[in-house]
Each structure stands twice: as structure tokens, then as C-alpha cells.
Task: inverse folding
């Protein structure tokens, strides 16, 4: 029982760590791209290529650099989460109505004030949507990461498949699915709440 | 490291070739089957909007299930080996294609449909001459997403004996031999990137000439 909770916690922590890391970097990159829109296309295309790499391939290539264990999983999640976060930050800020920008400028806001008081708050619902997609993907990656020595609930799933034991498999599978569904539900609700304001 | 990789590549390239070919075949089979099932289904759903909403919700939930979990869940039903892999992968390839077929057709603006109705087209003619051509780029994008996912999932399918490039990764991890791991991982990545690029091009060609615009992010 203790082992189960520990693995569930590890599963969640690895996912959240990777996504948070990507959120910090991704939001900054997204903001920078709105200021230098010329490079936005190529940069986003490059991140898109990263996203295309199969997850097991990504994990095993990173394994060469980061070794067996959870670090590899966190880095892989970081790479996969970048695209939804960067893209949503970028499009979220650019989708802002020009009248709001003008109103901000008319009030004499500096460009930094505009960023923090006008542009980012308006982009936040879309960014939350990026976080939701990233987190759900992350749970799947941590599950596979058991093959490169990661902890988490994937261990039950993998052992279950190896031993042909449905019970063992479900011990991992059910909580993983519940995690994904509740994340989907909660962040969806948060997104809608933020949009309404 | 690099030299070890190259010598392994030199020695085992027939193995790589076979795995690569297997991977391409599995992907092609699953995605083709997926298209055959998902496109008609997607069209049918556009005629029953109320049912469609529910089906889309269920599909959305299914899509959050991690690949390894899906293989584990379906293994008792389908056994192990290549057929299982193809069954699971086909099931999964349906999701993006179905979703894009449905949204592609429902997003065709009413003006076109009205114009076509005004010209005296019947609903089959509207489907084949108006709705499908306009929805085609979106459908092809769904096929692209699907293919990329399936190439990825097919590597994971190695754990249930699906073969392909995942087999090399898996063997390499088992023996703690980085060279073999990379021999599976790098071609798998390239396969996904090239496939995505090519089908992306196809989607551009599928866009009716009057609607082509600069590619937006």
C-alpha cells in the first residue's frame, strides 16, 4: 500500500516537474516571440519537429545523456510540453483585441506594464489549456519511462504486461487514467472560469 | 560512443532495415484501416449532431489513456504479437481522423451549402462536391496527426511483441547497449519527422486553390 502511494506520488511529481519547467521557459519564449514575430514561424516549427519524435525514441535518446532514472523522464516531458505552451502563449497574446492594447497605451502604461496587466492576463486561459494538454501527455510519458528506469505507476503496468497479470496491470492503469481524467476536468473548468471573467 | 554506434550500424544494418520496414508496414496498415473506418464514420456523425457530441466526448476521454496502458488493457482480448499491435494501433488511429473529418465538415460555412442547394444539388452531391473537398485539408491533417501518433505508439507496441523499430530500442535497453537503442530511436524519429512533413505538404495540396493562405501558426 505504501509502495502504491509512493509510486502514484512519484508519477504525479515527475509530470508536474517537467510541465512546470516547460511552463516557465515556454511562457517566456512565447512572449519573446510576440516581440520578434519574424522568427516566430521558424522557432515554432522547430519545436514542432521536437514534438513529432516518438516518445519512446525521445526517452531512449535522452537516456544516453541523462542516464537511467527519473531525470530522463522530466527532460522528455519538458520537450513535449514546450510546443503547446509556447504556441498557446504566442497565439493567446496575439489574439488580444487591438482596442484593449490601445486602451492600455492610452492610459500611459509602459510596455512591461502592458505585458503584465493587459496581455498576459488575457492569454492565461489559453495558456492553461496548453498546461492541460501537456500534463495529460506527461502522464503517458512517465508510464513509458519505466523502460528507461523511471519510477511511477508505469512499473505496475509494465510488470502486469510482462507477467500477464491483469490485476497488476490495473493497479497502475486505473490511477493513471483517473489522474488524466481529473486533470482534464479540473483544468477545463479552470479555463472556463478564467474565460468568463 | 559514436564509433560504437557506427560499428553496430555497420554490422547490424540488415536488422535495422527489417525493423524499419516492419515499422512502416504496421503504421501504413493501421492508418489505412483507420482512414477506411474513420472517414465514413465521421461523415455519418455530421448527420446526427446530438449523437456526435457524445461520441466526441467519449473519444476525447479515450485519447487521454496512455499508450502502454491501452496495450495492457487490450492484451487479454487480442493476445500478443503483430495482430494485436495492428488492432490497437488501428483503434487509436481512428480518433484524430474521425475528429478532424467531423469538425472539417461541420466547419464548412453555411453559405456554401446554401449556394449548392440553390443550384439544385442533392445532399449526396453536396457531400462529394462541396463538403468533402472543403474539409479535405482538415481531414488530411487528421491523417498526419494519426500517422505521427501511430509511429510513436508502434515503438511502444514492441513490449507486446509488435516488432518494428521499438524492438531494437527494447532489446538495446534490455542489454544496456546504447548503440542498439539509438539504432532504433534515431530512425524512428526520422520516420516520424519525414512522414509528418510529407503529409503536411499533401494537406497544402489538398486545399482548394481559392482558399490557400499563408500557413498560420
Result:
Amino acid at each position: 500500500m505504501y509502495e502504491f502511494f509512493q509510486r502514484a506520488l512519484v508519477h504525479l511529481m515527475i509530470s508536474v516537474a517537467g510541465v512546470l519547467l516547460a511552463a516557465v521557459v515556454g511562457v517566456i519564449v512565447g512572449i519573446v516571440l510576440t516581440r520578434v514575430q519574424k522568427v516566430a514561424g521558424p522557432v515554432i516549427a522547430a519545436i514542432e519537429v521536437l514534438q513529432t519524435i516518438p516518445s519512446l525514441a525521445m526517452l531512449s535518446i535522452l537516456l544516453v545523456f541523462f542516464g537511467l532514472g527519473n531525470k530522463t523522464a522530466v527532460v522528455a516531458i519538458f520537450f513535449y510540453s514546450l510546443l503547446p505552451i509556447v504556441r498557446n502563449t504566442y497565439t493567446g497574446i496575439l489574439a488580444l483585441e487591438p482596442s484593449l492594447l490601445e486602451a492600455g497605451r492610452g492610459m500611459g502604461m509602459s510596455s512591461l506594464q502592458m505585458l503584465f496587466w493587459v496581455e498576459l492576463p488575457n492569454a492565461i486561459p489559453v495558456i492553461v489549456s496548453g498546461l492541460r494538454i501537456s500534463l495529460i501527455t506527461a502522464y503517458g510519458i512517465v508510464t513509458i519511462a519505466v523502460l528507461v528506469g523511471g519510477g511511477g505507476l508505469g512499473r505496475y503496468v509494465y510488470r502486469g504486461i510482462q507477467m500477464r497479470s491483469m490485476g497488476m496491470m490495473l493497479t497502475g492503469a486505473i490511477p493513471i487514467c483517473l489522474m488524466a481524467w481529473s486533470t482534464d476536468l479540473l483544468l477545463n473548468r479552470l479555463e472556463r472560469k478564467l474565460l468568463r471573467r | 560512443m559514436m564509433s560504437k554506434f557506427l560499428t553496430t550500424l555497420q554490422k547490424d544494418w540488415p536488422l535495422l532495415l527489417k525493423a524499419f520496414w516492419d515499422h512502416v508496414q504496421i503504421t501504413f496498415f493501421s492508418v489505412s484501416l483507420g482512414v477506411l473506418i474513420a472517414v465514413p464514420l465521421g461523415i455519418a456523425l455530421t448527420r446526427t449532431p446530438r449523437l456526435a457530441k457524445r461520441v466526441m466526448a467519449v473519444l476525447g476521454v479515450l485519447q487521454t489513456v496512455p499508450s502502454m496502458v491501452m496495450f495492457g488493457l487490450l492484451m487479454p482480448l487480442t493476445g500478443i504479437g503483430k495482430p494485436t499491435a495492428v488492432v490497437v494501433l488501428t483503434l487509436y488511429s481512428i480518433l484524430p481522423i474521425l475528429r478532424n473529418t467531423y469538425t472539417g465538415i461541420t466547419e464548412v460555412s453555411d453559405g456554401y451549402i446554401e449556394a449548392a442547394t440553390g443550384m439544385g444539388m442533392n445532399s449526396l452531391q453536396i457531400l462529394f462536391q462541396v463538403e468533402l473537398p472543403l474539409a479535405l485539408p482538415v481531414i488530411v491533417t487528421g491523417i498526419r496527426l494519426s500517422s505521427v501518433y501511430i509511429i510513436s505508439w508502434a515503438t511502444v507496441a514492441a513490449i507486446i511483441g509488435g516488432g518494428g523499430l521499438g524492438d531494437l530500442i527494447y532489446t538495446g535497453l534490455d542489454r544496456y547497449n546504447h548503440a542498439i537503442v539509438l539504432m532504433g530511436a534515431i530512425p524512428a524519429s526520422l520516420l516520424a519527422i519525414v512522414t509528418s512533413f510529407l503529409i503536411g505538404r499533401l494537406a497544402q495540396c489538398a486545399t482548394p486553390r481559392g482558399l490557400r493562405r499563408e500557413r498560420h501558426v
